[in-house]
Amino acid sequence: MSGKSPERDKPWLFRTYAGHSTAKASNELYRKNLGKGQTGLSVAFDLPTQTGYDSDHPLARGEVGKVGVPISHLGDMRSLFEGIPLGEMNTSMTINATAAWLLALYIALADEQGVDRSKLTGTVQNDILKEYLSRGTYVFPPAPSLRLIKDTIVYTGRELPKWNPTNVCSYHLQEAGATPVQELA
């Protein structure tokens, strides 16, 4: 045995959690970072996108593009990833309540780019219970949320074998008062 392991010796992904103002401005930032050697993308979405509001909805007023990129439709997703070949990119989307919908937009864009879905690599956080228990940015109550989590996991397991369908983030639970034991549970 040579002592080399393809998995162990694979280079780490380098990505910056980023997204702001508009999809076009965020795309410019992503392309600049990739040009400087960043090897993946980590998309930060704005609060209206996180909670399922279109950017032009009255409840989104004052929040659009503030803490991340606003995505309301496939056109926004096209602008966000213009010039970025999704088949060659590992993309992390830190999104929960609207994870299934945003993953569907990402897949639709990959289809437009002619990418074989089985080649897509990345992660969608899809930790909807965290939103319910700690942040308050949930869209659906717990039972339907659990169903969305499960459906996303089943779908990605079948259609996107290189995709991580969930990324549990217990930090917010701790901030909401959970003990370390409760975080693990």
Notes on the protein architecture:
With 185 residues, this protein is of the alpha/beta class. It has a single domain (17-184), classed as TIM Barrel, CATH 3.20.20.240. Helix content is 41%, strand content 10%. It has helices at 23-35, 47-51, 74-80, 99-112, 128-135, 142-159, 171-175, 180-184; strands spanning 17-18, 40-44, 90-94, 121-124, 163-164. Strands 1-2-3-4-5 form a 5-stranded parallel sheet, covered by helices on one side. α1 links the parallel β1 and β2 (40-44). α1 runs parallel beside α3 (74-80). The longest helix is centred in the last third of the chain and has 18 residues, at 142-159.
- Which class do the helix and strand fractions yield? alpha/beta
Percent of residues in beta strands: 5-15%
- The CATH topology label is TIM Barrel
Name the average pLDDT: 92
Number of self-contained structural domains: 1
Global shape:
globular
Give the C-level CATH assignment. Answer: Alpha Beta
Number of strands: 5
Number of helical regions? 8
Instruction: State the separation between the terminal residues, measured CA to CA.
Output: 39 Å
CATH architecture: Alpha-Beta Barrel
**What is the H/E string?**
EHEHHEHEHHEHH
Which regions are unreliable across 5 or more consecutive residues at pLDDT < 50? none
Helix content: 40-55%
**Largest sheet descriptor:** 5 strands, parallel
Strand order of the largest sheet: 1-2-3-4-5
Radius of gyration (Å)? 17 Å
Supply the CATH superfamily name.
Answer: Methylmalonyl-CoA mutase
